[in-house]
Amino acid sequence: MENLESTGAKIRKLREDAGMPLRKLAALLELDQSTLSKIERNERKSNIQLIEKVSDIFNADKKELLVSFYSDVICYEIQEEDEFYKILHLAEAKIEYKRTKHKD
After folding, report:
1. Running DSSP on this structure, what letter comes out for residue 30?
2. I need a labelling partner for 35 at 20 to 30 A (CA). Which of 44, 47, 75, 92 fits?
């Protein structure tokens, strides 16, 4: 089963596992402490630049964090849609089509 933790929860876990105070990580990320706290609690969205910085700071798997980030974005956007399975399936088909088309 996939790890269903949000990106914010993953950031918090990385920080806590490293024994780093919130204020120190916030300073390294050039964020206000309250902003980082909200990101960790999923009350505010992160962004790609933040994910990349977190990955560098903790020497974490950037691809894994990006997968988590993008899955959060997609989930947030379509979670209320009744046809979310169809949306995801069609998006997957479109991505495959575009990738194949660009190879030609």
Report:
1. T
2. 75
